[in-house]
Design a protein that fits this description.
Length: 353
């Protein structure tokens, strides 16, 4: 149970390369499967279950991005002023945020009959109402904004203190939502600093920083499997009770089941670190890693074009074929678009590597 001391400024974390690649692929798979979920009772049960399984087993993907960011950003060994921190990261976040918000507003104006005036566009950007996947950038911007404050806490907090923070976060965010859902009681207690996606930020640092004994590791793996089982088996039952309208309560990224899955997945790959061939894995994964942010940002547009102009989506084939086919095709096209954009001066900043 000793600290695992790793200087992030000097050593590459190779299992992060794998996590980033798998999380990026999983996001696209998740979005490819999503339309099937809202067709409960309207499509064959096997087709619905296929989409549900694909979506359930990939729910960890977005939390993993937050957890990796937390592990990297909250490292006390990486000393820099708040000014330097914001200067270094503003270009990597704000430029893509503004550029892709504008791009998707134009897409919606062209394809979705969005109101064509600057005021509507500005309100959409302010209210996170541009496109469904861009919410991630809003959260990341908020987490980056609070990082210098969190780093002071992390630098002075003991392991036990961080564990208390995580318990407060889990109870006030995940457990309270369970109580509200199943007992219709909205808890009045709040722990504002330990709420929302800040918890994943700190959880990523905690799992990265500290070592765990065999019993603790297997305990985390078991609750991860339990989280997956809860999502897989509770969701259709709740959907059935909701008169066939999809109930995605256990899909939510801050829900108990997804927290369990995300922690287990992160720790599992951390434990693989010594078994990963550093040179080989980095060489193979480097191009995809450099394109991962771009793939995330552009893939909904690729989905839209394939659907609108080529009539291709998960419904085009039997879902067990259609979902992976659409995901792989979309990833391939998004990868090419991203790499081309990264080669163009003044444009490459919208798809940072």
């Amino acid at each position: 149970m000793n600290k695992q001391v790793i200087d992030l400024t000097k050593q590459r974390i190779y299992y992060f390369d794998w996590l980033r690649v798998l999380a990026t692929i999983s996001v696209v798979v998740l979005h490819a499967a999503a339309p099937l979920l809202y067709e409960y009772g309207k499509i064959p049960a096997n087709d619905w279950w296929t989409g549900h399984i694909f979506d359930s087993v990939t729910r960890w993907c977005v939390p993993i991005f937050f957890m990796m960011s937390g592990a990297l950003m909250l490292n006390p060994g990486k000393q820099e002023s708040a000014g330097v921190f914001f200067k270094k990261r503003s270009a990597k976040v704000l430029i893509p945020f503004i550029a892709w918000s504008c791009f998707y507003i134009l897409v919606k104006m062209k394809m979705d009959d969005m109101e064509k005036n600057p005021e509507a566009a500005f309100k959409a950007i302010l209210s996170d109402n541009v496109y469904y996947h861009l919410w991630f950038l809003y959260v990341i911007i908020g987490l980056y904004a609070i990082t210098p404050i969190l780093k002071v806490y992390i630098a002075n907090a003991s392991r036990r203190n961080i564990e208390l923070f995580l318990v407060l976060w889990f109870v006030c965010t995940s457990v309270f939502s369970l109580i509200a859902k199943f007992y219709q009681v909205k808890m009045g207690f709040e722990a504002f600093p330990a709420s929302g996606y800040i918890g994943y930020f700190v959880l990523g640092y905690y799992l990265f920083k500290y070592s765990f004994n065999r019993l603790s590791k297997w305990g985390i793996y078991l609750i991860g499997v339990a989280g997956l089982c809860i999502t897989v088996f509770a969701t259709p039952e709740m959907t059935e009770k909701n008169n066939g309208t999809f109930d995605g309560f256990f899909y939510h990224y801050l829900n108990v089941s997804v927290v369990f899955m995300s922690a287990a997945f992160f720790l599992f790959f951390k434990e693989l670190q010594e078994r990963i061939n550093p040179a080989g894995s980095y060489r193979v994964l480097k191009p995809f890693n450099q394109a991962s942010m771009g793939i995330y940002l552009v893939h909904p547009f690729v989905f839209l074009v394939l659907k609108k102009y080529f009539e291709l989506d998960a419904f085009s084939f039997t879902p067990i074929v259609g979902i992976p086919f659409m995901a792989l095709l979309t990833i391939a096209i998004s990868f090419v678009i991203t790499r081309v954009l990264q080669m163009i001066p003044f444009v490459r900043n919208v798809v940072p590597n």
